[in-house]
């Protein structure tokens, strides 16, 4: 690091600069006027994969730099920063010793000492930050998709109830009025049959509206909604359902109640489809700083390492995604012949909102 020795004015300065050079986490490459690496700090060795001995005096900078990013190209050598006195911030692509290429944040400046002109390039690995940003973006998009799906469910449910449902009810009333007239017996019997068909259609529309988005979930909360769902579930599948609650029976944020309801609904549906269960137990426990939901069945169980073979992989993935978006977790305990237990934990604030999610990122 002879180039550092001529930058200071006291005997202590070079050692300080050398210490900074060696210990900063950003990679520093010193390039001479022939574009050959003149010096490199340990962080540069890490980011490029070459040792200082392999770099210094042997590697041309263009072998490391694969171009700058601009508004058109991901990597371009046009208007190269190496020709400029100083470029405070830009993005470039680095090629490592093993041939990998990835983007880094960079800055450059020119320094002059008695040995000549040097280009100092500082590089910062952005791969981890980009990975985190990509994950954050994916979570945000997943949240938007789920919210859009729930909003559409709510709209269709309301339209079925207020539109089709009310129209069928009006038809049913009209049929009953007509049936009070002095009509032939055969006509009356036909009208009665039509009334029964209308009643069945009205019931189906009502069930569809509830399945899409039960009004009880928005009006009364998770417990009344899942209690009502459990009764319909037991009637449909002939499976005994039990609901156990512990702790406060408070309301939670809409996103929390929706997530708990959908996870519980999915778990119960999986039990009915795949587990051959006789009994399902739903347990909700409010611990103040978190809410825990367990759905347990006495069915056939499965090997948790073979979830996709059971055909439930997508549903279980959806459960985990819903909980993860709220800072929660989903655990699955099961083995062949031993039943299945789905356990959900979501951290909460005192107001019943998800602890690790900014309220501005979700709709109420």
Automatic annotation (TrEMBL):
Q: Which reaction does it catalyse?
A: ATP + protein L-histidine = ADP + protein N-phospho-L-histidine
Q: Where is the PAC domain?
A: 88-138
Q: Which residues form the PAS domain?
A: 13-58
List the InterPro entries.
HATPase_C_sf, HATPase_dom, His_kinase_dom, PAC, PAS, PAS-assoc_C, PAS-like_dom_sf, Sensor_HK_TwoCompSys
Task: State a single Pfam family of this protein.
Answer: PAS_9
Return the EC number.
2.7.13.3
Q: What is its main location?
A: cytoplasm
Question: What are the names of the required cofactors?
Answer: [4Fe-4S] cluster
Tell me one GO molecular function of this protein.
ATP binding
Q: Where is the protein situated, by its record's location annotation?
A: Cytoplasm
State the UniProt keywords alphabetically.
4Fe-4S, ATP-binding, Cytoplasm, Iron, Iron-sulfur, Kinase, Metal-binding, Nucleotide-binding, Phosphoprotein, Transferase, Two-component regulatory system
Protein purpose: Member of the two-component regulatory system NreB/NreC involved in the control of dissimilatory nitrate/nitrite reduction in response to oxygen. NreB functions as a direct oxygen sensor histidine kinase which is autophosphorylated, in the absence of oxygen, probably at the conserved histidine residue, and transfers its phosphate group probably to a conserved aspartate residue of NreC. NreB/NreC activates the expression of the nitrate (narGHJI) and nitrite (nir) reductase operons, as well as the putative nitrate transporter gene narT.
Q: What is this protein called?
A: Sensor histidine kinase
Question: Which source organism does the UniProt entry give?
Answer: Effusibacillus consociatus
């Amino acid at each position: 690091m002879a180039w550092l020795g001529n930058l200071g004015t006291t005997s202590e300065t070079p050692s300080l600069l050398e210490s900074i050079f060696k210990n900063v986490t950003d990679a520093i490459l010193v390039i001479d006027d022939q574009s050959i690496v003149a010096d490199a700090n340990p962080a540069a060795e890490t980011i490029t994969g070459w040792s200082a001995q392999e770099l210094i005096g042997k590697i041309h900078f263009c072998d490391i730099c694969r171009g700058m990013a601009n508004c058109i190209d991901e990597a371009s050598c046009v208007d190269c920063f190496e020709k400029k006195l100083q470029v405070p911030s830009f993005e470039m692509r680095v090629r490592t010793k093993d041939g990998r290429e990835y983007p880094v944040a960079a800055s450059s400046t020119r320094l002059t000492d008695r040995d000549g002109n040097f280009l100092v390039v500082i590089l910062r690995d952005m791969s981890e930050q980009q990975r985190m940003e990509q994950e954050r973006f994916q979570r945000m998009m997943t949240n938007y998709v789920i919210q859009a799906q729930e909003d559409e469910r709510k709209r269709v449910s309301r339209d079925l109830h207020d539109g089709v449902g009310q129209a069928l009810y009006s038809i049913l009333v009209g049929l009953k009025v007509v049936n009070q007239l002095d009509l032939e017996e055969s006509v009356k019997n036909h009208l009665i049959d039509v009334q029964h068909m209308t009643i069945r259609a009205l019931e189906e529309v009502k069930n569809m509206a509830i399945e899409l988005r039960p009004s009880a979930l928005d009006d009364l909360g998770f417990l009344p909604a899942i209690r009502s769902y459990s009764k319909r579930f037991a009637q449909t599948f002939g499976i005994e359902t039990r609901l156990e609650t512990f702790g406060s029976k408070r309301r939670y944020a809409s996103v929390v109640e929706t997530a708990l309801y959908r996870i519980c609904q999915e778990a119960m549906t999986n039990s009915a489809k795949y587990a051959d269960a006789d009994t399902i137990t739903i347990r909700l426990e409010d611990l103040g700083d978190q809410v825990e939901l367990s759905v347990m069945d006495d069915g056939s169980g499965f090997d948790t390492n073979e979830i996709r073979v059971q055909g439930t992989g997508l549903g279980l993935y959806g459960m985990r995604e819903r909980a993860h978006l709220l800072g929660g977790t989903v655990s699955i305990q099961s083995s062949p012949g031993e039943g299945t237990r789905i356990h959900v934990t979501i951290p909460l604030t005192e107001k019943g909102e998800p602890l690790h999610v900014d309220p501005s990122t979700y709709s109420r």
